[in-house]
Write a structure and sequence with these properties.
The chain is of the alpha/beta class and 254 residues long. The protein has 8 helices and 7 strands, in the order E-H-E-H-E-H-E-H-E-H-E-H-H-H-E. The longest helix is centred in the middle third of the chain and has 29 residues.
Length: 254
């Protein structure tokens, strides 16, 4: 087997019915992992799962709202019933209900962002880590954002949550490293997903970002999916507590 092969591994990927999450699940399945597709809508999860199955992969749909602890607990318990274990957890699902100044940020929006983007990842990690520790093997990947590396006047709460995810990964990697568990973040730049559609569908904004980016293009979901495969496989076994930036070079360009 190659260094990226994931035969025998079971992966849970939140927010995986489309976009970056789907690409991660699809690419993990291509390397022979069994994947759980999860997002809020049952129909979307089942459709994504069938796409992977039709390509020869192993996938199963378990809908969950990451903002609800009961849903998260059910997601993990049902995955164990289906596949017996969880080797790879990918925390991809996130929310951003507010765009604007921090001075105008409603408390409810701030709380929702922190809940869905940080606390829910904390819940998920704590539900899978004990079993990973018993087997002395496991991988947790949190999809953060380059927003967590820079100041912003429009996406303040979102950026705070994504910076917190990077710290969560660092903390967990130290706590659980002795059990052969790696915890890392991926920080994408602007990726052509429905989540970021308001930015890249606007021609003026899209051209602005393309010009700022050394690679002169926006990212595609598959630009992120392969990084998750690396981190989940033997190829990434000595990488932990890190944030891998995948942004076409925009954060180093000025």
């Amino acid at each position: 087997m190659g260094i990226f092969n994931l035969t025998g591994k079971v992966a849970v990927v939140t927010g995986s019915s489309r976009g970056i999450g789907y690409s991660i699940a699809e690419n993990l399945a291509k390397e022979n992992a069994s994947v759980i597709i999860s997002s809020r809508k049952t129909e979307a999860c089942e459709a994504a799962s069938k796409r992977i199955q039709s390509a020869g992969g192993v996938a199963h749909a378990i809908p969950a709202n990451i903002g609800k602890k009961n849903d998260i607990e059910n997601l993990i318990s049902e995955t164990k019933k289906k596949f017996g274990k969880i080797d790879i957890l990918v925390c991809n699902a996130a929310s951003n209900p507010f765009y604007g100044s921090m001075s105008e940020l409603p408390d409810e929006a701030f709380q929702k962002i922190l809940q869905n983007n940080v606390i829910s990842n904390h819940w998920l990690a704590n539900l899978v880590l004990p079993d990973m520790a018993k087997r002395k093997n496991g991988t947790i990947i949190i999809v953060s954002s380059i927003g967590g590396l820079k100041g912003t006047d429009k996406l303040g709460a979102y950026a705070i949550s994504k910076a917190a995810d990077m710290q969560l990964a660092r903390n967990l990697s130290i706590e659980w490293g002795s059990k052969n568990i790696t915890v890392n973040c991926i920080a994408p730049g602007l990726i052509k997903t429905d989540f970021a559609k308001a930015l890249w569908e606007n021609e003026k904004i899209r051209k602005h970002y393309e010009e700022l980016t050394p690679l002169k293009r926006l990212g595609d979901p598959d630009d992120i999916g392969g990084i998750a495969v690396f981190l989940a496989s033997k190829a990434g076994a000595f990488v932990t507590g890190q944030t891998i930036v995948a942004d076409g070079g925009v954060t180093i360009a000025g």
